[in-house]
Amino acid sequence: MHLPTLATTLLLPFTTLAASLHRRTIPASTIIQDIENIHQGVLANTAATEAYDGGNLLTTLVTGTPVLATVGAIHVANRKGFVDANLAPQYGEADTRAIFDKVVDTVAVSIPAAVEVIVGKKEAFEDAGLGPVVLASLRLLIDDHDTFSAAVTAKSFMGDAELTAEGEKAVDDIHDAIQRGIDAYSS
């Protein structure tokens, strides 16, 4: 007599879990916000890097910490975007256009500019002993960029060759900019 009630009680948590997983569809607006969060982190990193002038150990700890903290913030935003992109459905043409436009208007501009500032501060970072830390940060961020971009590209609409080429160019330009920074700190 109590078997149906017991079965219902036991199955209810699994049904709830399955329903919650189904509701976790990631809209394009979430990916767009992830890109914006990365962009804001990059802008903060650029400002912190521009303010960094090197110096002795104490000065470096005080003025270098914001540079490293912003790298951490970019990394966290990027990993969230990576997870969101992997959970996202296949996007249609309009959503893909909106995502690619966001990339082109934000991180495709801010990341290359940030790398130029980082390269311009190479002597200050190296003199303070932070050159290897900057290099490691750039390597982390290129991996973040490549994996997030691959996840987004895999969910993007591919029926428009011009749109696909625009997205691939933005991704490649960002990768190449970060690679220039890695090359500068590797020599």
Helix content: over 70%
Please provide the count of β strands.
Answer: 0
Give the DSSP E fraction (strand runs of 2 or more residues): under 5%
- Helix/strand order, N-terminal first: HHHHHHHH
Biggest sheet record: none
Q: End-to-end span in angstroms?
A: 77 Å
* Tally of discrete structural domains: 1
- Average per-residue pLDDT, rounded, comes to 90
Principal-axis shape? elongated
Unreliable spans are 6-12, 14-21
- Rg value: 21 Å
Organism: Cladosporium halotolerans
Protein name: Cell wall galactomannoprotein
Keywords: Signal
Pfam families: HsbA
In short:
The protein has about 190 residues and is mostly helical.
Overview of the molecule:
This protein is mainly α. It has one domain (27-186). The protein is 85% helix and 0% strand. It is built from eight helices and no strands. The protein has helices at residues 3-22, 28-51, 57-87, 93-105, 107-120, 122-127, 131-155, 161-186. Helix 2 packs parallel to helix 4 and helix 7 (131-155) packs antiparallel against helix 8 (161-186).
Task: Sum up the structure in keywords.
187 residues
Helix-strand layout with pairing:
Elements: H1 3-22, H2 28-51, H3 57-87, H4 93-105, H5 107-120, H6 122-127, H7 131-155, H8 161-186
Helix pairs in contact: 2-3, 2-4, 2-5, 3-7, 4-8, 5-8, 7-8
Organism: Cladosporium halotolerans
InterPro entries: Cell_wall_mannoprotein_1
Keywords: Signal
